[in-house]
Amino acid sequence: MDAKQKLKLKEGIKRYLTVAFFLLPYIALFATFFIFPLFFGVYISFFRYNVFDPSASKFIGFDNYKLAISGLTIGTTNVTYYAKMFWGSLKNTLLFVCVSVPLLIIIPIFIAILIDIQPRFYKVFRVIFFLPTILSISAVGIIFKWQFDTQYGFVNGLIRVFGGKEVAWLNSQPYAWIAIVVTTIWWTIGTNTVIIGAGLKEVDKQMYEAAEVDGASYPRVIWSIALPSIKNQIFIIVFTTIIASFNIYGQPDILTGGGPAPSGTVAAGTPGTTTVVMMVIRGLMTGVNRQPGLAAAMSLIFGSFILVVSLGQAAYNKYREKY
Amino acid sequence: MKKKTIPLLLLALVLTGCGQTSEKPSQPGGGGEGSVEVSLPTFENVALTYGNPITGADGTAMRRLVREFNEEYQGQITVTESFMPEVDFYESLVATIPMKRSFDIALIHSYRVPSFANKNLLFPLDNLTASTGVDITRENYIEDVYDAMIWDNKQYGVPLDVHSIMLYYNKDLLAQHGCEVPTNRAELIAAAKKMPQTNAGGWGLPLSTTWPSEYIFTTALYQNGGKEIDKNTLMPAFNNTAGEKALKAVADLIHIEKISPLNVNVDADLLMFQQGKAMFHINGNWMLNSLVDSGINFGVTSLADMFVDTPTADSKKVASRSHTFVLPQGRNETIKQQAALVFIKYVTENAYLWAESGGHIPASNIARNTEEYLALPYHQTYGDVNMYTLNEPSPYYYEAFAPVFSRVTTAMSDATYDAMALLNAAAEEGEQAVLIAQLEG
Question: Is the minimum CB–CB distance between A258 and chain B shorter than 8 Å?
Fold first, then answer.
C-alpha cells in the first residue's frame, strides 16, 4: 500500500468516524427510548411479567393476546372484561380519530387562509390561535372542565341565556365526546395553523391576482390555487394529526375520567370515553398489581393498527409523488 | 407544647440510656423465629429519607412536623422529606423499592398497605417495634385502624390519621329555615327540602356524581350492613341487597328527594356550598380549612345514620382511610429503621398539627388527648372516632371494588338506573380483575 492509498484510507476512516460521532447521540437515544422498549415490549407480551422480580416472570405464550382479543379461561371463569374494554376503547379511539382529524385539518386551513389575507392585527390573531398549544393538558383540562360544567359552565350559561335547557356535557353521552373534541380542537389547532400558514406564505400572490383578473371568485382562487399549492403541508398535518389523535389520553382522562357509560348501558366492560392508551396506562399500568405483559400485548395490537394506517399513508404519498 | 415536650424528654432519656449499637441488620420478612433482638442505640447523625404524597394544605403541617423533629433530634436523626403528587409518588415507590433505592420511611394510603406488603415491598414492623424500645403499641392507637395495617399476620404500618367524608352544613341557612343540625337521614332530608332547589335560590345537598361519590357509596354500603369485599375470598361482595339499598340511598337523594341538581361535576358542589347556595355539603375532612378560608358560617358533623331509614348496629359507620407510615424494603439497616420508628412515633403523637392543618383525625390516642387537639373547634364535632371504618385488608381491594365507582356515577346521573344490574356488572369486572391480579408471575 503506497502513501497515497494510506492517506485515502486514513481520510476515509476519519470521515466515517466523524459521521459516526455525530450520529452516535441520536442512535443511542433512539435505541434506548425506542428500539429497546419496542423489543422489550414484544418480549414481555409473552410473559406474566413481574416488575418487582423479573426472574419470577412466567412465560405464558399468547395468553396476553388472547386476554386482550377474545378472553381467557381462568379456572372456571372466562375472563372477557379486558377484551371488551380493549375493543370498546379501540372503537372509541377510532371514533375520535374519524371525528377530530377532519376538524383539526379544516379549521386550521380556514384560519390560516384568513390570517394570510393579513387583516388588521393579524399577527395578534396568529399568536392567539397558537397560544393554547403551549399549555399543558392539565391546564387545558381544568379550563374546559369548568367551561363545560353543568351548573357553572360558560357553555351552559350561554344556552340558558337563549332559553335552552342545560346539557350534562361531561356526564352524558354523546355530549362528553363533543366536549372532548372541542377541547382538542382549541388546544391543538395552533401547530397545524402555523404549518398551513407557512405554506400559504410561500404561494406566489401574483397567481391569485392573475386568477382574479381572469374572473375567478375568491373561493375559487383558494380552492384551485391556494390549496393545491400547499398540498405537501396538508399531507404532513394529516399524517401527524392522525398519529396524534390515535394517542389521545389527557383530554378524556381529565375531563371525564373515562366515563360516562352510554345511557342505559350497564354491562361489564363498558368503556365510556376510555381510549386504548387510557386503558393501557390507567387500567393496566398503575398500582402494584399492574399487568405489564397484557399492557404490552394491547399496545402492540393497537400499534399494529396505527402501523397499517401509516403504511397506507406512506403508500399514498408514494403514489402521489409518482403521478 | 407542654404535653408534647414531656413524652419527648422521656423518649430522649430512653434513647440515651441505651448505649448499645447493633451492627447486624434485622432480617427482612419480619416476625417469628430467627428474628434478631436489637436494642435502641444512641443515634449519631442518622440521616433518613421520607417520602409522601402530601402536596395540599396539610403539607404545611407535615413540613413543620419534620422541621420540629429535626430540631428536637439535632445531631441524632435528620429526616429529609420529599413530597410529590400522589400518582408520581406511588410510581416512584413501585420503581425504586425493588432497586432498594426508595425512601427509608414512606407515608401511604391504608388501602394500599396489603397490596404493597403482598409484593414484599414493605418491611414488617412487629419485631422492630417489639425490640427497639420505641413504644409504638396497638393500645395507643385507634385499634381497628391499627389492625387494618395487618396483612398475613404481620404489622406493616403505623397509622398517622383517619380521614373520611363529613357532612358540612351552612349555619345561616339552617337558622334561616328553623332547622337543627340533622342527626339522621330523615332530619337531613327534611331540612334540605326547605331549600328552593334551584341554582339561583340554592339546593339542599348538591352531590357530585364523580367525587367523593365512591366514599359516599362505601359509607352507605357499611351503614346498610354491606362490605366491599369478602374477607375470605377477597372477591367483590357488594352486589347484594345491602349494595342495592346503599346505591338507592345515595341516588335517591338526587332522583327521589330531589335535593341535589342533576349531573353536578366534581367541585361544583363545593363551590355551591362556599357561595352559600347549598345548605349541606359532603366532602372530605381535608376540605375543612378550605371552607374556613372561604369565610362561610358553617359547621361539621358526621354522616352516621345518613344512609339508612332506621338506625342499626352498623348505621353509624363511615367509610374512611388512613395515611399510614411504612418502611419500604431496602437495605433494611437496623439503625435507620430504629430511627425511623422514633420519627414515626414523634409525628403520630404530635399529629394535632396535622389535624389542625388537614382536618384529619389523629390515629394516635396520645395526639387526640393533647390540649391542642382538644381545642380544635371543628374536630370535636366529628363524633366518636370508632365509627370511622377502614376496608377489609386485601391486596386486591382496588381491583375488586373500583369497578363500582363508575356505576355509582351512572346511578347518580340516570334516574332510570337498575341498581342490581349495575352492581352485578361491577362485581363481574371486579372478580375478573382479581383473578388476573392473583395469577402468579
Answer: yes
Q: Are B388 and B164 in contact (CB under 8 A)?
A: yes
Residue range(s) defining the domain that contains residue B384: 2-160+322-389
Closest to B251 (Cα-Cα) out of B406, B417, B426, B404: B417
Mean pLDDT of chain B: 90
- Domain harbouring A253, CATH code: 1.10.3720.10
The interface predicted TM-score (ipTM) is: 0.89
Longest CA–CA span in chain A (Å) reads 94
pLDDT band with cut points at 50, 70 and 90 for residue B34:
very low
Helix (H) or strand (E) holding A37: helix A36-44
Domain total for chain B? 2
Residue B395 maps to a domain? no
Distance CA B388, CA B283 (A): 15
Contact A74 B436 (CB under 8 A): yes
- B432·A82 Cβ contact <8 A: yes
Averaged confidence pLDDT in chain A: 93
Find the CB nearest A77 among B90, B199, B432.
B432
Our CA-based measurement puts residue A302 at a distance from the nearest CA of chain B, in whole angstroms, of 21
B432–chain A nearest CA distance, Å: 6
Residue of B nearest to A52 (CA): B98
CA distance A279 to A257: 11
pLDDT for A157-208, tens place per residue? Answer: 999 999 999 999 999 999 999 999 999 999 999 999 999 999 999 999 899 9
- Cα separation, A219 vs A204, in Å, equals 17
- Comparing CB atoms, the residue among B417, B437, B441 nearest residue A58 is B441
- The beta-carbon neighbor of B441 closest among A48, A81, A145 is A48
How far A58 CA lies from chain B's nearest CA (Å)? 5
